[in-house]
């Protein structure tokens, strides 16, 4: 296990139940005295990820007594309107493919901006200064709302609009999936690697029936491709 709590004000982690957000939750538990989690139900095809959140939270608490003490309340916010206005392969039963705009149709326009805005509103009410999210511009599909510039601009806008001093943390921003697995090992050893591999969910098609050496998933969607490739590099395969 790494480090001790910073003693800083508490954190809110955007926690979908996927690999990245699970790693970010462990990262936050390693640093802050009090950590709450927030998930969003926006009608995503892979909403099975929301069902994985409980097992990941419980697993993290069981791995480290200090993490158990720091892990606070879990929140879920329904954002059905986001799914209703989005025409994407994550919110519609259509094939995953590239669009004329050069982005995959898994891109849900405005999703991360909406997520972080709601997270800030909740953090404001809960008295939490730090907001942690798993956006990454290294191993990603070109989503513009995953870029570091977007997150920095949004932090400025949220602090101006709420007259506060939130800090948006994106610990995975400049690392790839192999390095994310390595971070997981540094945070909690093989036990944490096993937990996130087996209990988190990243597959866009919501496949929890097919298990691979890197976890559950269809094995063919972009999310599975990224996760599998990162696992092979991490394991030196």
CATH superfamily: HUPs
**Mind telling me which CATH architecture this is?**
3-Layer(aba) Sandwich
The first-level CATH class is given as Alpha Beta
Give helix % range.
40-55%
User: How many domains, in number, for the residues?
Assistant: 1
Please provide a written account of the structure.
There is one protein chain. This protein is of the alpha/beta class and 237 residues long. It has a single domain (11-202), classed as HUPs (Rossmann fold), CATH 3.40.50.620. It has helices at 19-29, 48-63, 65-70, 80-85, 111-126, 148-162, 177-199, 222-235; strands at residues 11-14, 35-41, 71-78, 130-132, 167-169, 211-212, 215-216. The strands form two sheets. The protein has a five-stranded parallel β-sheet with strand order 3-2-1-4-5, sandwiched between helices. Helix 2 (48-63) packs across helix 7 (177-199). The chain starts with 10 loop residues before the first strand and ends with a helix. The model is unreliable at 1-6 (pLDDT under 50).
Give the key terms:
alpha/beta, Rossmann fold, disordered N terminus, 237 residues, 8 helices, two-stranded antiparallel ribbon, five-stranded parallel sheet
Structure, briefly:
This protein has 237 residues and is of the alpha/beta class. The protein has eight helices and seven strands; from the N terminus they run E-H-E-H-H-E-H-H-E-H-E-H-E-E-H. The protein has one domain (11-202): Rossmann fold (3-Layer(aba) Sandwich), CATH 3.40.50.
Topology:
Blueprint: E1 11-14, H1 19-29, E2 35-41, H2 48-63, H3 65-70, E3 71-78, H4 80-85, H5 111-126, E4 130-132, H6 148-162, E5 167-169, H7 177-199, E6 211-212, E7 215-216, H8 222-235
Parallel strand pairs: 1-2, 1-4, 2-3, 4-5
Antiparallel strand pairs: 6-7
């Amino acid at each position: 296990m790494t480090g001790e709590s910073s003693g800083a004000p508490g954190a809110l982690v955007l926690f979908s139940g996927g690999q990245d957000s699970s790693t970010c939750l462990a990262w936050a538990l390693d640093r802050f005295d009090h950590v709450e989690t927030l998930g969003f139900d926006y009608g995503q095809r892979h909403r099975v990820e929301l069902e994985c959140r409980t097992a990941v939270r419980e697993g993290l608490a069981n791995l480290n007594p200090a993490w158990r003490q720091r892990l606070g309340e879990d929140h879920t916010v329904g954002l059905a309107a986001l799914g209703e206005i989005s025409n994407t392969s994550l919110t519609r039963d259509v094939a995953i493919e590239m669009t004329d705009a050069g982005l995959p149709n898994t891109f849900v326009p405005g999703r991360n901006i909406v997520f972080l805005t709601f997270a800030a509103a909740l953090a404001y009410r809960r008295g939490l200064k730090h907001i942690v999210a798993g956006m990454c511009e290294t191993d990603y599909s070109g989503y513009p709302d995953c870029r570091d510039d977007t997150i920095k601009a949004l932090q400025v806008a949220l602090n101006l609009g709420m007259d506060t001093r939130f800090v948006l943390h994106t610990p995975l921003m400049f690392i790839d999936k192999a390095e994310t697995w390595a971070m997981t090992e540094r945070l909690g050893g093989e036990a944490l690697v096993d937990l996130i591999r087996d209990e988190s969910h990243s597959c866009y098609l919501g496949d929890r029936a097919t298990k691979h050496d890197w976890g559950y998933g269809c094995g063919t969607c972009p999310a599975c491709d990224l996760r599998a490739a990162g696992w092979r590099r991490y394991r030196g395969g």
